[in-house]
Known about the structure:
The structure is a single chain. The protein is α+β, with helices and mostly antiparallel strands. The protein folds into four domains: 2-94, Rossmann fold (3-Layer(aba) Sandwich); 125-186; 197-324, D-amino Acid Aminotransferase, Chain A, domain 1; 335-428, Alpha-Beta Complex (Glycinamide Ribonucleotide Synthetase, Chain A, domain 4), CATH 3.90.600. It contains 15 helices and 22 strands. It has helices spanning 10-19, 37-40, 51-60, 71-76, 78-84, 94-101, 103-112, 126-136, 165-177, 245-265, 299-305, 310-318, 358-362, 398-409, 425-428, and strands spanning 2-7, 27-32, 42-43, 65-68, 89-90, 120-123, 146-150, 159-161, 188-192, 197-205, 210-212, 217-218, 221-223, 227-230, 235-238, 272-281, 284-291, 335-341, 367-371, 374-377, 380-383, 387-394. The strands form six sheets. The chain has a five-stranded parallel sheet with strand order 3-2-1-4-5, sandwiched between helices. The protein has a five-stranded antiparallel sheet with strand order 12-15-18-22-19. Helix 2 (37-40) links the parallel strand 2 (27-32) and strand 3.
Amino acid sequence: MKVLVVGNGGREHALAWKLGQSPKVTEVFVAPGNAGTAIEATNVDIAATDVDDLVQFAKQHAIDLTVVGPEAPLVLGLVDALEEAGLRVFGPTAAAAELEGSKVFCKNLLHTADIPTADYRTFRNADDASRYIKDKYSEPTDQVPVVVKADGLAAGKGVIVCETRSDALQAIDRIAGQKEFGEAGNELIIEEKLIGQEASVLAITDGETIISLPAAQDHKPAYDGDTGPNTGGMGAYCPTPIVDEAMFAKIESDVLVPVVHAMKRARKPFKGVLYAGLMLTAAGPKVLEFNVRFGDPECQPLLMRLKSDLFDVLVAAADGKLSEIEPLEWDDRPSLCVVMASEGYPGSYEKGRVITGLEDAAEVEDVKVFHAGTTTVDGNVVNAGGRVLGVTAIGNTISAAKLKAYTAVQKIRWPGAWCRKDISDKALG
C-alpha cells in the first residue's frame, strides 16, 4: 500500500514515521516534507495547498491513502478533490473543516449545540469592536480579561489574550485594523477569558463512531511560566494527569459526541481528527477552540505511545468502518515533546542556519527527533521555519521522559536555537 502525507511540519514527520511502521505500507510520500521526512520517506516537491497537483500525483502513483496534515489544504477542499477523483483520503471536507477555518462558525455551532464555551461577541470591523470595548470598559485603567481572536486561519497566532483596555484595543487594531493576519481578520471574536489549565483531547471519527485518544497538554505561550505571545505550540506531553477518567468521560459526553451530532445536523458531517482545545475551569471543561486535524506538537507524543497500526485506523475512518476495528493499544509510559525554535519566533527569524548534533540526540534512549521547519542545503540540515524540531521522548514517568527529552535537546545546536525549559512542569507540580 502506498501512502501520501500532505504537509511539512513535525506532525507530518510523526505521521510518516508511524505509517511507515505498518507492515501493510510499502511506500510513504510526503508533500512537500522536510529534512527529516526525506530520511524516512520520499519527499515530493508539491506545496500542501496545491490541490490540483496533489490530486494528480495521487492518481499517477496509485496512492492507497492520503493523510492531510495541516488545516489550510483541508479548508481549501483537498479532501473533496481527492474523493471526487475516487481516491481514499483521511480528513474532513472543506465544509466540515469550517469548524477550524472560521472561529465564528465554531462559536455559533457550540452555542446552538449547548456545548460549554466562553461567552462571546462577533464583529465585522475594528470600529464596532473597539466601540464595544470602550462602552463596556469606560475607564482606560479598567482590567479587561478578554481574548480577541481572528476568525480565520492564522497559523496559531491569531489569538491575543488581553488584561487591560489598552491590550484589547491594540489587539483589535492588529487583527481587524492593520490586518496583521490578512483575511483571517475580516471578522473577529471577543470572548471572556477563561481561567484554568488547558488540555487537548483528540478523537478520530468517521462521522458515526468516535475513538477518543489519551488527553494531552500543549504549551501555547512562547516562554516559561506560560508568558509571552501565543505560538503554534512549544511542547506537549501525554497523558496529562489533570484529565482523570471522570473528566475524560465528561469531555466525551458533553463535547465530542454533541459536536459530531451538531455537524451532522448542519449537513457538514465530520470525518477525520476532531481536536478539542479545552480550558478546565472551576465550572467544568469549556471549549476554547476546535481543530480539524492532529495537533502539532500533540501528535508527536501521542504517536510515540500508539502501539496499534495507524494505517489500519485511518483507513477504517476513511472507509466509515471505525466500529469494526479493535480498541487501540497504547504504551503505558508517558511521552513528552519539546519544541526547539528559531530565534525571533513567533515573530520574524533568519533561515538557513546549520543545525548540528542531530545524530547525537538520536542516540539518547527512547528519543525521536521529529523535524518541522527544516530543509537541506549543500548536505547540511538548516532551519527553514519558526518551530524547527520536536524532540520527543518516552519514559517510565513524566519526569523520566522530560529528562530524556532535554538531554537530547542539549546535544542539538544552531545559532539562536531556543526552547521552553518547563514542558510538563504543570503535571510534576
